[in-house]
Amino acid sequence: MARGDLTNEEWAVLAPLLPAQPVQGRRWRDHRQVINAICWVKRTGSPWRDLPERYGLWKTPYQRFRRWAADGTWARLKAQVVTLAELDDDIDWDAQIDATIVRAHQHAAGAAKRGSTSPEHRHAKASDAPAAG
C-alpha cells in the first residue's frame, strides 16, 4: 500500500457502498485500486496520464470517476459517509473563518497602473488614434 492509499479501515467503510460488478460484460478493475488512483490524481493535481503504473492504465480510473460523477455515485458515497460519521460523533460541523488574515500580494498594494488612466482612452484601438501630422 502506497502513502495516501485507503487504509483497511477506510476500505471497510467504503466497500459496501460501492456499485456491484456488472452482471454482463467484462468485470471491472478492483474498486479499491481505482479509488486509490482517483485519490492520487485529486490529491496531487497531476494529469490523469501521469498516474503511476501501480494503479494500472489511466483510462480506467478516469472513466470510472466520470461515470460515477454522472450517475450520482460520488454524491451518494459522500452522503452515506457523512451520515456514518455523524452517527459515530466523528464529525464536527462547527467551522469559523477569519478573513482578517487574507493578504493581497505586494504588487496589489495600490500602485499606479501603466498606460493611460483616463476612462475614455482605456479601450481605444490603435486605429482610433488621431493621425500624427
TrEMBL record:
It comes from the Bacteria. InterPro entries: IS402-like_dom, Transposase_6_like. Residues 6-77 form the Insertion element IS402-like domain. Residues 106-133 are annotated as: Disordered. It holds the Pfam family DUF4096. Coiled coil: none annotated. This is Transposase. It comes from Actinoplanes utahensis. The lineage of its organism: Bacteria, Bacillati, Actinomycetota, Actinomycetes, Micromonosporales.
